Write a sequence for this structure.
């Protein structure tokens, strides 16, 4: 794999999921692969799970890791061409990315959307320019519109826990929040689940209040609903996540009461497992009783971030 | 050792001190023990000595280390149960601690007191919840009320330098400061010295101005004094440290002039060695002439932080 | 090499350049040298290239690396003796440096000038005190007046790229900027080029507007010019860099129009290669057309920071 920025970079998602589960059984089996290889992790935004899990994944593979918190340790980067840089930006992405590529064999990059201008965010200008200028493989640690390491970990978790004989019903359920959050996690989850549905792995439904529909670029083939009662019926997995509006870009819109998943809501499901990418605001996004109960997979899911990252880094290392 | 948060977690302090001194002689003798084991260092407050010494200790043991500065890189954590998280906290300690436990084999944690509400600080709610939720051994990097890695290094330093035939007289002497500092270091030092006194290793005295008495939970068996002239007589070691009042919690109270240790003050001692955990404000807490003179152990003491941390991590690794 | 703070610490610059180029061919040939040795990187100011390249250099040599961002993670340090520390400084450099020396075998240090008081900056008080108190070899990661790792990488780049039969003409050309920048990079570059000129490696010219002359302590033997047209004639290398005035210390003075290097300006040169230490403000310091054209060496030059740092660390490790 030469880069990992979306499900489209993956040749065979089943194979990648199997690779992650194999690494979970034998974490240190490939330490020669990463010997003398350096992973640079570039964060333009804060990170807990992604940083720790990716760093650990690289160490498991024998790599060295250098972390760069650009928001604090670094510089404001210019992305536009043809401007005289006499303002606040101190370095152009052309130089900054190319230089990091000189010191690292693989780069991980995190850059959130600003949620102001939809076209600008969905362009992924920063991400794409960084990739084209750095000269080494890039692994997304979450971009403006996608978080593929999270989605791979989610699929690994479903694969690992599903013991039924039929295809599981997976529901992505919008959840309340007080802040305007990016669509990166739900976009990416939807994109991966649509691909998994196409490959006959599962059935996929998205449910959200009116106005919160995701871009159709990420939801091809998904069953789209606005009725949470209907959507959750017979669900095997509920993937809980807030996001701000795509249509009224970056806005927090009014929504019907009672969207939060509780034990009561689980009754209509097939004893559904509940997932969330974390961090989660308890009793706002998701009820404590569910998080602390037997249906929650959130910690196991977070743990699988490690094996997802390790499978991706292994696939990248194999092409170096 | 399954956790290291106070002297009570240590089965045999003499043995642990000997282990530290043995590691000082053979720092790299146990690198197989830490192979493929990861130490996560979680700082909710800044750190210099503790971070570097613990990181180096882990590297000496062959471990990987991941540092997490939560005050800057991370999140405001919620510790209360049953609250709707629609305020400033973005993640609950239940999830945050559990997730870190997924990526690390051992966790180190630093969390200072707020010095506002005594009961809240002395509850050690944050620390205890973190330990119970993370699922892996935890080493204290200083909590609201204790700093056991410092105290162990202090005991190692006394053991290493004492050449007399009788038991040394160790005096913990309060020192002036302009800020309200926690009681963690003196609480912990006192607790360790009381234990050492009980085991016949040394005699222990605490001297402080009226109003600065520590909680009796940490001083059982210590000789308590308010007269610095008397307390220092024939002392072999003076452990200099400021702390704010425990009784008038977190307050800086008036104190008699002349509390600072100077060469003049050393005259009544048995040529006492002078210790301080650092950082030290020169000529406010402790005179420059003492710090720069032959009686000061402060740099050697700081150096021993490494071997204390390595002995603790080794003991923890042996239980994994 | 017992320290690396200026060209004067280097016995033989040709040999050091050759060592860097040899390491570029065999990066991992000396991993036993750094085994169980720890490099501490202490930053009082932000760093991208220097941090990553030095960290990678140490890893290539088998060392462990601990990074300390003192501006954010640490403390305000006192450097003066004989002051009662009852103000904003929380630790004296005497203790802070000595303690870091306890945990690290080699220390790297970055500390920028304040550009307020020339004598204070050019004293290098902080740097010199740190070196004298820490007790281990120190590698400069840029001080108030010098950046020798950059200069060594620059000389390596010239040596690596020069294919002519005569000595190349190297021109250090002042460039416009909107901020007051230190003289550390040009001082250091000049000092190294003057030494290289003395050894018959190259011819060296400095060109700057009136008022921007560097301290003669760093320019001995250089051809000094104020006329950019004349200075660039037949140049083989142009080293572009802004700096603030040394004479009117730290000031940004008026300068003649047309100082920026463009393709048009390159016409009078011997198809000169263009260098810059980065970060560079495009179309303010240096034109985009040059940076993106075939004459630019800036990325290769940044890449060579790694081999320069590795050659220096190797030479230091050989003396431990």
């Amino acid at each position: 794999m030469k880069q990992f920025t979306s499900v489209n970079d993956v040749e065979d998602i089943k194979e990648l999921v199997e690779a992650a589960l194999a690494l979970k059984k034998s974490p240190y089996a490939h330490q020669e692969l990463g010997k003398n290889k350096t992973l640079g992790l570039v964060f333009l935004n804060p990170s807990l799970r992604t940083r720790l899990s990716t760093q650990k994944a690289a160490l498991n593979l024998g790599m060295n890791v250098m972390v760069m918190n650009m928001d604090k340790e670094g510089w404001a980067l210019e992305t536009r061409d043809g401007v005289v840089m006499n303002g606040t930006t101190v370095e152009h992405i052309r130089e900054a990315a190319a230089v990091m590529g000189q010191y690292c064999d693989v780069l991980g990059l995190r850059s959130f959307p600003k949620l102001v201008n939809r076209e600008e965010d969905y362009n992924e200008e920063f991400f794409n320019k960084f990739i084209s200028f750095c000269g080494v493989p890039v692994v997304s640690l979450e971009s403006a519109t996608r978080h593929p390491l999270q989605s791979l970990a989610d699929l690994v978790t479903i694969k690992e826990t599903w013991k039924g004989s039929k295809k599981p019903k997976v529901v992505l359920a919008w959840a309340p929040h007080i802040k305007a959050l990016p669509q990166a996690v739900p976009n990416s989850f939807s994109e991966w689940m649509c691909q998994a549905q196409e490959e006959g792995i599962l059935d996929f439904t998205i449910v959200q209040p009116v106005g919160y529909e995701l871009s159709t670029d990420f939801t091809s083939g998904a069953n789209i609903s606005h009725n949470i009662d209907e959507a959750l019926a017979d669900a095997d997995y509920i993937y809980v996540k807030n996001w701000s509006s795509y249509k009224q870009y970056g806005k927090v819109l009014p929504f019907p009461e009672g969207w939060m998943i509780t034990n009561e809501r689980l009754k209509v499901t097939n004893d559904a497992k509940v997932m969330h990418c974390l961090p989660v605001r308890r009793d706002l996004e998701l009820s404590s009783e569910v998080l602390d109960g037997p249906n929650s997979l959130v910690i196991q899911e977070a743990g699988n971030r490690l094996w997802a990252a390790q499978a991706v880094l292994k696939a990248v290392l194999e092409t170096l």
